[in-house]
Write a structure and sequence with these properties.
Oligomer: heterodimer
CATH class of chain A: Mainly Alpha
Largest sheet of chain B: 6 strands, mixed
CATH class of the largest domain in chain B: Alpha Beta
CATH superfamily of the largest domain in chain B: P-loop containing nucleotide triphosphate hydrolases
Number of strands of chain A: 0
Strand order of the largest sheet of chain B: 7-8-9-3-10-11
Number of strands of chain B: 15
Radius of gyration of chain B: 21 Å
Number of helices of chain A: 11
CATH topology of the largest domain in chain B: Rossmann fold
Strand content of chain B: 25-35%
CATH topology of chain A: MetI-like fold
Radius of gyration of chain A: 20 Å
Strand content of chain A: under 5%
Largest sheet of chain A: none
Chain lengths: ~220, ~290
């Protein structure tokens, strides 16, 4: 069995999850505490990938990143970045695609914290940043874990977007889900089955871990 | 001295309400904001601490302007040097008692204040515990200690004792008085409990529908007939104990606990925490000068 698509899948999921976490924390902080009028619009945009067919998302990325287009031309010509049919392009598309899976748990985690915790830190002279790092984030550990794991698992399961903008380049964009599709088309069922089985087993283990940790089953003494 | 002259439109349960207050609080006093729920007591503390922005007005503390709409000044809560005990205690659940206090330290502040506060509030035994393993009274002591770590000049207490039972409440009142005196604080308390106000405060502001309707010492505010020939006090029952054939009722009057002997028929409907009047007929009190 060729392990390359599986390794690529996990590399994509890992890079996407790390970048998403960095992007999502400030975004969630803004969504949780801002009273801005454009907030509902931003919330809607963040949630769009939940309902939109991945092919729609992929199609617009295809158009946007295309060298025939102003943005794609500028990226390609000026910065020398080629996003179509490349790994960086996949990462960017995956970030948008998995955004709600990271944002929703963290945002609801922040909502669930009593505002007086934040205010108590402020009257003790702590800055907003220090309050976020030392008070808010440690109190939403389970939401952070849920966000990280769901984004990771969701990126592993990505197919439509990759198909539209990544294509099927071994080692670059041929992730496991594409490889499975490829093998099935070639009537190579046993190879498709081994990829599928690995994905099934790994995603099962990841999700099981979340439920075990967040459900408190791993703690030795539950008081 | 704290001078507060503010207006703020608040959303109350019966629609909009204009909070319009002009308060002066002398340094070193312990004052109480008294009034029914939803008249803007908590909002007043929040505006003083900078957590809520007043609509209009001026707040000055010891000749420093903290807030002024005319001068466009609004000092951040981080810079106001206030100790604030929240109604829900607001202890950080992921930190132990000691860590909660340490979090409150300024940069470069020495940690000996923490040892001192742990001793004063009798928290030494509990310093390794997480807040969710503490009782209400213990949490309250931690919250009070934490509010004092930065050595603030002003302490704000938002109904600190309302959720506690009467025995623990009495003990905590002593802690509040103790730290108020020890650290020469100016303390603003929100309370509904007249016994508590009598015991703790020098001055009472009575709020109603967003306005200050009365102010004075607790006895001026709460005793309607100021001069009466009767020997009569209001108090709160602390305990009732049976002794031989009679009952000993301990009643808290101001900050004194008085023993009263009662018959079984008299204590039928009474229990600890009840507000009672202690009065005497056909009886001549003796007046002695205190040295």
């Amino acid at each position: 069995m060729n392990w390359e698509p599986l390794i690529l899948t996990f590399k994509l999921a890992l890079v996407t999850t790390v970048l998403l976490l960095i992007i999502a924390i400030p975004l969630c902080y803004w969504l949780a505490y801002s009273k801005s009028r454009i907030k509902p619009i931003i919330e809607t945009l963040v949630s769009m990938p939940l309902v939109l067919p991945p092919t729609v998302l992929g199609f617009y990325f295809l158009v946007a990143f295309s060298p025939n287009n102003a943005l794609g031309d500028w990226l390609n010509g000026t910065l020398g970045i080629k996003l179509l049919f490349s790994f960086p392009g996949l990462v960017i598309a995956s970030i948008f695609y998995s955004l709600p899976f990271m944002v929703h748990p963290i945002q609801s985690g922040l909502y669930s914290i009593s505002p007086s915790l934040k205010e108590a830190a402020y009257v003790m002279g702590k800055s907003k940043f220090s309050t976020l790092i030392r008070v808010l984030l440690p109190n939403i550990k389970s939401s952070l874990l849920t966000g990280i794991v769901l984004s990771f698992a969701h990126t592993i399961g990505e197919f439509g977007v990759v198909l539209m903008i990544g294509g099927n380049i071994p080692g670059e964009t041929k992730v496991a889900s594409i490889a499975i599709y490829d093998e099935v088309e070639a009537l190579n069922y046993s190879a498709a089955n081994s990829y599928s089985l690995v994905l099934f087993a790994i995603t099962f283990c990841i999700l099981l871990m979340v439920y075990l940790i967040n459900g408190g089953y791993l703690k030795k003494s539950r008081k | 001295m704290i001078a507060l002259n503010i207006q703020k439109e608040l959303q109350s349960t019966d629609g909009k309400m204009l909070l319009n207050l002009n308060l002066r609080i002398n340094k070193g006093q312990l004052v109480t904001l008294y009034g029914p729920s939803g008249v803007g007591k908590t909002s007043t503390l929040r505006m003083l601490s900078g957590l809520l922005k007043p609509g209009e007005g001026v707040i000055t503390v010891n000749d420093t302007t903290w807030f002024s709409t005319d001068k466009d000044i609004n000092l951040k809560p981080q810079l106001r040097k206030i100790g604030y005990v929240f109604q829900d205690y607001a202890l950080f659940p992921h930190m132990s008692v000691l860590q909660n206090l340490e979090f409150a330290l300024h940069k470069n502040q020495k940690s000996n204040i923490i040892t001192e506060l742990l001793t004063i509030m009798e928290l030494d035994q509990l310093k390794g515990r997480k807040p969710d393993t503490l009782s209400g009274g213990q949490k309250q002591r931690v919250a009070l200690a934490r509010a004092l770590v930065q050595k603030p000049e002003i302490l704000l207490l938002d109904e600190p004792l309302s959720a506690l039972d009467s025995t623990i409440r009495l003990k905590l009142q002593d802690y509040i008085l103790k730290v108020h005196k020890k650290y020469s604080l100016t303390t603003i308390l929100i309370s509904h409990d007249i016994g508590e106000i009598y015991k703790l405060s020098d001055w009472v502001f009575v709020l109603k529908d967003g306005l200050l309707i009365q102010e004075g010492t607790p006895s001026e505010v709460f005793i309607s007939k100021k001069v009466s020939g009767k020997f009569k006090f209001t108090g709160e029952i602390i305990s009732i104990e049976k002794e031989d054939v009679v009952f000993i009722v301990r009643v808290l009057i101001f900050s004194e606990i008085v023993k009263v002997i009662a018959q079984e028929s008299e204590i039928q409907n009474l229990g600890p925490g009840d507000k009672v009047i202690i009065a005497s007929k056909a009886f001549n009190p003796i007046i002695l000068k205190l040295e």
